[in-house]
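Protocol step 4 of 5: obtain the predicted structure for the target chain.
Materials: sequence only (see below). No template structures provided, no constraints applied. The aim of this step is simply to have a reference model before the mutagenesis design in step 5. Sequence pasted as it appears in the construct record:
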Amino acid sequence: MVDEQSFDLVVIGAGPGGYVAAIRAAQLGLNVACVEKRTTLGGTCLNIGCIPSKALLQSSEHYTHAQHGLGAHGVKVGKVSFDLDAMMAHKTKVVDDNTQGIEFLFKKNKVTSVFGTAEIKNAQEVVVTPEDGAPQTLKTKYVLIATGSESMPLPGVEVDEKRIVSSTGALELESVPKHLVVIGGGYIGLEMGSVWARLGSKVTVVEFLDRITPGMDGEVAKTFQRILKKQGMTFKLGTKVTGAETLKTKIKLAVEPAAGGEGEIIECDTVLVSIGRRPYTDGLGLDNVGVKTDDRGVIEIDANFQTNVAGIFAIGDCVPGPMLAHKAEDEGVAAAEIIAGETGHVNYETIPGIVYTWPEVAAVGKTEEQLKEAGVDYASGTFPFSANGRARAANETDGFVKILADAKTDRVLGAHIIGPDAGNLIHEIVVAMEFGASAEDIARTCHGHPTLAEAVKEAALAVGGRTIHI
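Step 4 output (structure tokens):
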């Protein structure tokens, strides 16, 4: 490759936000390069995040279902066992297939891949340093930062990715921990805790706040914790971790009440630190060009995804908003369209959030707590899966659908689902909200019978106090 090349757009980061932005910009006629620090495309999501974790979640769920779920359907099996190496091999294949798929899409759309560490020298120059070889300069009209995020460290608990792990190490454990302590009761910690609990680990979740999944609808969070407890997880809420001592055969984790009080030691053999994520911008050269960030390192952008430096844009986990791959993808498309001279837009009120445990948890829009805090007069409708015929047939009756609507206009303001296939069911409500639908619009839409989606219709009916099946 020559020492200097010229492009219309240089995208830094080939995760969901970056690679989607690069493809969309190329579709609009721009000459695009996408710089990636890893040796494979796809970023954290495809390599060490969303995709491999869902592969392990799916495999471990199959194992649990074979153990405990088939008998109710009259399916008799002998002693059920699992092959951890085979599960890991499946996970690796899924990752490889996805990352290779992006390589194909880049070639199809004539996006140039450049591997190495990027540093922004100015708004028109990005220097890329490969692992081996000399740095090269990419000349460009525009720069789009899509460098994503990294796991947040916890003082006093040093991650070695072997016994004290981040989400990355939790995907690569060579054996099932006897006792896994998850520090942090958020989405990632609960998903990875579920994987190893299903495979036989004793799992203890330590959370600083007095509840799990902060930001989730309170009623859903309580139900979620109850279900996870029934599945074998133990919770220590309102508790902070002050240190970790790694011994030959065990780890001593020092904890104490978050509000103050006498501490204790939890002994375990593996610790997962999952207290959140922070923007990854180390070495990017933001200081070189004066790109502004807040005190947490989040890059400040305007309504068009442009930083305070003309020609430099940013999207995804390194800008404000939820750190979600699909949010980054939508921002990538919108930013590419704006850079190409078109109009791009992201509706942040209709970005769903999903926890891929079983049952799944999914949400979009406002929670009841947020509506109360804002003084919004709203109506709530709830329908349990225990009253849904398809859920009964599947023997998956835990959970409910909740829809929140404006009390005056009936416009849907939010929805929250905990139950079977919640991650797919939520999208009916996402589309409805995108079109400004009312709860009655959903309620009067014919839903196939028997389906889990009928619970969504019944929750919409419940907003107006006219459910049929309870």
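Step 4 remarks: The chain has a mean pLDDT of 97. The two ends are 67 Å apart (CA to CA).
Proceed to step 5.
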